[in-house]
Amino acid sequence: MVERSSKFLLIVVGSVCFMLILYQYVAPGVISFSSPHGYFTEEDEGDIFPTPDPHYVKKYFFPVRDLERTIDFQIKGEDVIVFLHIQKTGGTTFGRHLVQNVRLEVPCDCRPGQKKCTCYRPNRKETWLFSRFSTGWSCGLHADWTELTNCVPGVLNKKESKQKNLRKFYYITLLRDPVSRYLSEWRHVQRGATWKTSLHMCDGRTPTPEELPSCYEGSDWSGCTLQQFMDCPYNLANNRQVRMLADLSLVGCYNMSTVPEKKRAQLLLDSAKKNLRDMAFFGLTEYQRKTQFLFERTFRLRFIRPFMQYNSTRAAGVDLDNTTIQRIEELNELDMELYDYAKDLFQQRYQYTRQQERRQQRIKNHMQQSHQGLGINLWPSHSRQSLASKLEDVEREEREEGGEGGRTEERRDFPT
């Protein structure tokens, strides 16, 4: 009698262990008593994010490795987020989100009247964020990819008075519709902005006046008309996003005589696409909630307040005829192609990540139902059959369901 009871108990325990092991194997990370850093859990937020478009037509093929973005960001280790801030892409607002709106064990110290915040790691006085509002313009005003990748390690070694080779740098950026971005920059320059203190460092030197002529005489270009802005062939607003994301060393930096014009353009575009694709994260100004979602899922960090999408911008207030719009698109031909590529990658990443989350949630729900029935179904063979059946149900539901739950998001420009 005792032996029979012992065998029965052994079968019960074995069945429970089998189910738990199989559950973790099928849906790793679904059973989670807390997030890796205690910052983010999916259960503690409602679904505030937009519904993926079930009819979205993909333009480019991206393998899963380009769509999947989940980083075990070690804020207590040596990891550093580097924000590449391109002018007039909503980077100022996003930069403030990073220092004021991320839920952290030790929040950034932002004091009234100071332009920079102190963003130390929880366990020591070293920064985990390299950005305008944390470290300032340490690599130059609006430093680009070429400048940052060559400058950031040395700057941090100097700031922290130590040599470190183990840091992991995670580059992030924002992109914006090229026409809106161009118009916003023109309005900004019209009000007196110059960015003339930018270094444009490349291959160890700054460009000569012959390599990078000025579009205006005097201290600034305030009051310039849109026509004057478009007519300057040296205007850095043209294809700014491609130039700031590309490796300029590939084309001889700002020396236009090194590589033929068409080849130079293609090299810059290909480099910008590659660097953008390889970045840990990028967002789009026109899709604030989706940008928030992808950042949170990439770094396992959560924002305290949701991102807002605004209706009006300075660029939106400019009335243009079709001829002028076409001219701006021609001046920003590379940016137009990059944005088209980036938008497709962004939408595919969002859709992929949402689908993965929904799939894990469904498996979790089915498994919870299976666990509730363990008192009846104790046999491993039955459990395997039940699990296989439920996985088939999940896959069938995914095929049949056209979209995801959530809210829709309107296409609106973000304030400059």
Structure description:
With about 425 residues, this protein is of the alpha/beta class. The chain has a domain at about 70-355: 3-Layer(aba) Sandwich (Rossmann fold), CATH 3.40.50. It is built from 12 helices and 6 strands. The protein has helices at about 1-25, 65, 90-100, 145-160, 180-190, 225-230, 240-245, 260-280, 290-300, 320-330, 335-370, 380-400; strands at about 80-85, 120, 125, 130, 170-175, 280-285. The strands form 2 sheets. A 4-stranded parallel β-sheet has the order 4-1-5-6, sandwiched between helices. It has a two-stranded antiparallel sheet with strand order 2-3. Helix 8 (about 260-280) runs parallel beside helix 11 (about 335-370). The longest helix is centred in the last third of the chain and has 40 residues, at about 335-370. About 30% of the residues are buried.
Name the poorly predicted regions: 21-38, 40-44, 401-406, 408-416
Distance between the termini: 79 Å
Q: Oligomer, anyone? A: single chain
Q: Which radius of gyration do the C-alpha atoms yield?
A: 26 Å
Spatial strand arrangement across the major sheet:
4-1-5-6
Which structural class do the helices and strands define? alpha/beta
Main sheet overview = 4 strands, parallel
Q: Which fold name corresponds to the CATH topology of the domain at 70-357?
A: Rossmann fold
The helix/strand order is: HHEHEEEHEHHHHEHHHH
Outline type: globular
Second-tier CATH architecture of the domain at 70-357:
3-Layer(aba) Sandwich
At the first level of CATH, the class of the domain at 70-357 is Alpha Beta
Report mean pLDDT, rounded to a whole number.
85
Number of strands: 6
Our count of helices gives 12
Helical coverage, percent range = 40-55%
